[in-house]
Amino acid sequence: MTNQIIQAILLGGYYALIACGLSFMFSIMKIINLAHGSLLVLSSYLFWWLADSYAISPFYSLSIVIPIMMMIGWALQEFLLQKSARGGELLPILTTFGLAIVLENLLFEYFGADTRSLAPYIGDLSWESWQILTDIYVGKTSVYILLSAISLLASLQLFMQKTAMGRQIRATAHDPDTAGLIGINARKASAIAAAIALGTIAISGLAMSIRGVFDAYSGGPQLLFAFEVTIIGGMGSLWGVLLGGIVLAMAQTIGASIHPQGFLIGGHVIFFVILLARLYMANSVIAIRIKKVFGGLR
Amino acid sequence: MTALEINSLDVRHGQLKAVRSISFSIEKGEVVALIGANGAGKTTLLRAIAGAHKLTSGSILLKGIDITDLAAHQRVAAGLALVPEGRKLFTDMTTQENLQLGATVSRAGGWSVDKIFEIFPNLQRHRHAKTGNMSGGEQQATAIGRALMSNPEVLILDEVSLGLSPLVVDQVYASLATLIQTGTTIILVEQDLSRAMKVASRAICMLEGEIVLDKKMSEVSREQITDAYFGLAKIKNIAVEQ
Question: pLDDT, tens digit, for every residue of A213-234?
Fold first, then answer.
């Protein structure tokens, strides 16, 4: 049981890491990025390509892939999302949905149907583990992934709270019209926010491809988990993402211990329960009172 | 020296012509009260000047420089600040954060967060509180402070005292008086006529998107302004002609 809880927390760290970019875009730019999974796979392929063709260690190529993904994020916002956001709330969702399909099929055409993994390129790290109790072992990669999730969420939180740019991004998210009136370049702030979101996707792409295998169509399940984490953790709260990841992983673990095929179902059940609870709570008197008391804590 | 010059400005809301070929120019240091009923086009005019609303035609010059094609944030950088109607604070941020945001364009000048707290001492205790929970007067003070943080040369205040208690309005105007002494050019919308007449040096009255009266406060009577406000001046003129 202890082992299951520990492994679930580690898995939760991974879920939090892949949900980071989606949650950031959702809370800051009010865009549900359905291309999140495909962009994640794209960054995985970038890592794989650099390792396979140029023998660059995936950890070194972070310094190449993160800037590339950030530039993609900036370009997406500047040339695609910004224009589609003018067409109402639904259009960005459709745009990113279309983008996901285009990306997946381009990747499939270029890289083929073979599944890939970065595990062969990181040496012993891929299977090494620490013994923390007599019969409990934790994989080193899983621990590193959890730690990077925590430090990524913490630095995003700090950036948003403490820096002038973070304030400008928050102000733009709150009211782009007024942001412009007080001298904020709302367009630039949104583009930077998108760049940051895609930068975090690069990190999650690395995490996905060193802990498992991927192909061009691996984005779907990742998007689903990221989305469930975002909803469970509460939209707009970065620490909620970590909590959401752990809750989802716990539910999946419990599901799997009930029935061998209960892993995914366990996750979906907790997602729907929390979604319905949120919808119900949103209109109830208790929720409004709770918000009044705890509203400032977020 | 001309601070702001507006040339035959036309602004539409879809089919509706909200502002019809309005022209005026304001000298540096002038305090202009923009007076008019609801729907006269005041807010639309001010938002168009600040760059939040697209013009149909016309041009806007700030200190002789054409700013017609600049985006709102570039106009702030050029020295124009608008305190929007309804204050429009970033309510989930603290007072200090709101003020800091106002300094985004970093124009040279004397305003700082501490200086704002000096002229609005009642904000001091809310420094690290979210602005969403503050009273209307405190929110208005924060909104004015936020605009001042960009060190504007022309400050536009839309509906300064809307929804505020008379006591708070007094406080807001007391701090505006300090501002006026520093030579800042101000355009303000004020529904309380006696207050507008006291603080402003010039009155511009709007009716149905047009200027119906534009005179120095010293040369205009309360009755003339009221007539302009309700559109009675036109009717009276017609009556005289007949």
Answer: 999 999 999 999 999 999 998 7
The CB-side HSE value for A24 (13 A sphere, CA atoms) comes to 30
Q: Are B90 and A171 in contact (CB under 8 A)?
A: yes
The minimum CA-CA distance between B117 and chain A, rounded to whole Å, is 19
**Which of B206, B202, B156, B150 minimizes the C-alpha distance to B176?**
B156
Per the CB < 8 A criterion, the answer to whether B50 and B88 are in contact is no
Rounded to the nearest angstrom, the minimum Cα separation between A238 and chain B is 15
**What is the rounded distance in angstroms from the CA atom of residue A106 to the CA atom of residue A97?**
14
| Nearest residue on chain A to B47, alpha-carbon basis | A181
B100:A164 CB<8 A: yes
Cα A218 to Cα A73, A243, A271, B86, distances in angstroms: 20, 24, 21, 48
Q: Do A178 and B101 touch (CB under 8 A)?
A: no
CA-closest candidate to residue A164, choices B209, B96, B46, B11 = B96
Query: Does A171 contact B93 at a Cβ distance shorter than 8 Å?
Result: yes
By the CB < 8 Å criterion, does A164 face chain B? Answer: yes
Q: Secondary structure of chain A: what % helix, strand, coil (to 5)? A: 80, 5, 15
Please report residues of B whose CB lies closer than 8 A to that of A172: none
One-letter identity of residue A116: R
DSSP conformation class of A116: B
Domain assignment present for residue A249? The answer is no
pLDDT for residue A239: 83
User: CB neighbours of B65 closer than 8 A, spacing ≥ 6?
Assistant: B78
Report the relative pairing of strands B185-189 and B31-35 from DSSP bridges.
parallel
Q: Reduced to 3 states, what is the DSSP secondary structure of residue B162?
A: coil
Superfamily for B2-92+153-241? P-loop containing nucleotide triphosphate hydrolases (3.40.50.300)
Taking alpha carbons only, the member of A237, A263, A239, A233 closest to residue A249 is A263
Q: State the ipTM, two decimals.
A: 0.85
Distance in angstroms (rounded) separating the CA atoms of residues A169 and A163:
10
Split into its structural domains, chain A has a count of 1
Distance CA A115, CA A212 (A): 10
- Most A CBs within 10 A among B75, B88, B94, B149, hence the mutation to make, goes to B88
How far B240 CA sits from the closest chain A CA (Å)? Answer: 45
Q: Is residue A132 in some structural domain?
A: yes
Is A292 within the bounds of a domain?
no
**pTM for this predicted structure:** 0.85
Residue B46: closest C-alpha in chain A: A181
Dist. CA B90–CA B224, nearest whole Å? 40
Is A119 within 8 Å of A44 (Cβ atoms)? Answer: no
Q: What is the pLDDT of residues A250-271, one digit of tens each?
A: 999 999 989 888 889 999 999 9
Q: Would you give the DSSP letter of residue A259?
A: S
Domain ranges of chain B: 2-92+153-241
